[in-house]
Design brief:
Layout: E1 6-11, E2 22-27, E3 30-35, E4 42-46, E5 51-56, E6 67-72, E7 84-90, H1 102-105, E8 110-112, E9 119-128, H2 135-138, E10 144-150, E11 156-165, H3 168-178, E12 183-185, H4 188-193, E13 198-203, E14 214-219, E15 225-227
Parallel strand pairs: 1-8, 7-14, 12-15
Antiparallel strand pairs: 1-2, 2-3, 3-4, 4-5, 5-6, 7-9, 9-11, 10-11, 13-14
Length: about 230
Amino acid sequence: MSKVKEIRFCVGSKNKMSSLVWKMFINNEDVYLLARQMGGSWKISLHKSGICRVAFKQELEKGKDRLVLKWDKVYVEDTISPNIAILVPHVDITKALNKNIESRLNKDILYIDSPSNDEKVVVKVFYTKNDGVDLESKLPASHKKLFQYALKNGEVVYLIAWKEKLQDAEITQLRDQVSKFQVNVTSEEAKSKIDTVFAVWINEGTQQTHQQPTIVNYPLGYEHLKVSL
């Protein structure tokens, strides 16, 4: 069982990113996920109490709740469902701006192979109530364990990744969603200096997924950068 309390992971390679660099870390018996490239504006927290949240780190408006989503933790012993999912799909929509400048800042990153066209990489967080459960035996062989940590209360948290084919409905939804993104920049010169930009959105959970949300992470291209005069 790992004694390391954190992991940084990214879909892609040292030269070409297909996702943000995500950090998962343990603080006491709470588990957190965040992406530094988003400026630390919001984070995912899976708490000892059983409450899980996506929330902004600071108030956007005075008196406004930082909470985006809240759901309850689930355990493998009760259902083979994750507590949060990060989805990195690949559809031939755009020429992505995804040079990996993050690798110059932090070399301690675990890279997950990028998906092929019309595929997706799925990264999910699972919990067991104790270390007597063999989670890997309950999952398909194609699922790879990236991280495992035993919390002081006996629970064990896992980070698992795998690839899947995208369904036609997912591809249509992705094309529609990505077309809506526009990033304003101050000048053509500023535009030419941008080498990485990602779209990130949250698909809320359903009854079938026990309300656990999915964070979708997609690289954008120059066509999504608009010079604001």
